[in-house]
Amino acid sequence: MTIVRTLKGHADFNEALPSLSLRHARRGWFLALYIPQRHGRGKPPGDKQKGPGMKLYDSIGPNPRVVKMFMAEKGIDLPRVTIDLMKGENRQPAHIARNPGGQTPALELDDGVVLAEITAICEFLEEKNPSPALVGTNAEERAVTRMWTRRVDINIVEPLTNGFRFSDGLGLFKDRLRCMPQAADDLKTLAQERMLWLDGLIGGRAFIAGDKISLADILLFCFLDFGIQVGQPINPAAKNLLAWYDRIKARPSAAASA
Ligand SMILES: N[C@@H](CCC(=O)N[C@@H](CS)C(=O)NCC(=O)O)C(=O)O
């Protein structure tokens, strides 16, 4: 049974020191590289799952939330396994064997293939459950959604997230990722500037990629909501974005994924 916890704020991240040492992390990477397996297909040693069944390896944080909100919009329900990020469970060999990136979410399929990377997981779920479409119903719609999703990702999600990891989240991430604390303020400023840029582009549109909710909205919402919790609020000058945020937040999928 799944326990879905919400991220209460950056204090949680800062207060909990990672129990994982660099030595363990290195060992995990070593195992991931040298245990014979087809890339992305590793069944973790000791995995006792019997019979077919997809499951979502879930945790706190905005990335798993994107998948959960996407699923909520589509009415998909899957068994979940909670990975304890604060204790570094995601960086231990069992999870690294599933996802060499050592992060969450990961979606294990019926045949043992493990998908990671939120956009890949969402695109897979879309193909298996086309309605309601959150990527698109034809080539053009899909391309437009992917274009906006990528814009959101590069311009806002990446700088906002790294701005957090390199400052408020440093206590948690310093032994997990290459952290550049000297870049944190610039990254946060960049995210703020790009919010204003996006604000100008979306104008009077109801949604980021057009007149229907899409993966681009879900991605942006989950990360802006995370930013609000960790001291990176939406740029107050971005009036269109603020109105958009309120509209998305009112959707049941926002509460269902929190
Ligand atoms: N590029 C990955 C990013 C995943 C990611 O950063 N996940 C976070 C949770 S929001 C994580 O696992 N953080 C813990 C860590 O890196 O140790 C994706 O698209 O899924």
Topology:
Blueprint: H1 10-15, H2 22-34, E1 55-58, H3 62-74, E2 80-82, H4 93-98, E3 106-108, E4 114-116, H5 118-128, H6 139-165, H7 170-173, H8 184-202, H9 215-229, H10 239-249, H11 252-257
Parallel strand pairs: 1-2
Antiparallel strand pairs: 1-3, 3-4
Helix pairs in contact: 3-5, 3-9, 6-8, 6-9
Bound molecules: glutathione (GSH).
In words, what does this structure look like?
α3 (62-74) links the parallel β1 (55-58) and β2. With 258 residues, this protein is mainly alpha-helical. The protein folds into two domains: 10-128, 3-Layer(aba) Sandwich (Glutaredoxin), CATH 3.40.30.10; 139-252, Glutathione S-transferase Yfyf (Class Pi), Chain A, domain 2 (Up-down Bundle). The two termini are 17 Å apart. It has a four-stranded mixed β-sheet, covered by helices on one side. The protein has helices spanning 10-15, 22-34, 62-74, 93-98, 118-128, 139-165, 170-173, 184-202, 215-229, 239-249, 252-257, and strands spanning 55-58, 80-82, 106-108, 114-116. It is 51% helix and 5% strand. 41% of the residues are buried. The protein contains eleven helices and four strands. It binds glutathione. Glutathione is lined by residues 59, 61-63, 85, 90-91, 103-104, 116-118, 176.
